[in-house]
């Protein structure tokens, strides 16, 4: 039996909730995920995206620097509170690890600014790879910390 892994990271920024949502949703993934963290590679490019990212049901292909690819589908959109997505059709080094991933970005008022939370629910490919989830969680948290640091550049002028 496999158990899903749930991970989340948050950071606050001195901007409004709607401004943060409107900036993060269409943000180019190669900018936000431009750095490797341990075994997690940066995103090299996004393919097959029709127009600006932001329409429910829209899909795109994420290409990682290690040659792996994933399909991302926008599954939820509740401006300015949250948006969700599903990653599947995983290829490359991550394929044995995760069959799919459900991601969620949330935006909530925090004092005079916004608290942005990015979370993943990772569905392991097998019981054997489920044993690797604690190590993956540590790597993901470092990857998320880097992304949330870069997000500050996009939100705070």
UniProtKB/TrEMBL annotation:
Pfam family for this entry, one: Polyketide_cyc2
Name this polypeptide is given: SRPBCC family protein
Originating organism: Nocardioides mangrovi
């Amino acid at each position: 039996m496999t158990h899903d892994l749930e991970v989340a990271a948050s950071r606050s920024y001195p901007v409004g909730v709607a401004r943060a949502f409107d900036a993060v949703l269409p943000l180019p993934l190669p900018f936000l995920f431009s750095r490797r963290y341990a075994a997690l590679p940066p995103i090299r490019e996004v393919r097959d995206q029709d127009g600006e990212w932001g329409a429910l049901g829209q899909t795109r292909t994420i290409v990682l620097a290690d040659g792996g690819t994933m399909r991302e589908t926008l599954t939820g959109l509740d401006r300015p509170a949250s948006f969700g997505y599903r990653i599947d059709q995983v290829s490359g080094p991550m394929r044995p690890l995760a069959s799919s991933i459900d991601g969620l970005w949330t935006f909530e008022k925090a004092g005079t600014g916004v608290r942005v939370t990015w979370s993943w629910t990772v569905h392991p490919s097998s019981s054997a790879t489920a044993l690797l989830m604690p190590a993956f969680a540590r790597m993901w948290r470092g990857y998320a910390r880097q992304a949330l640091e870069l997000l500050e550049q996009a939100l705070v002028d």
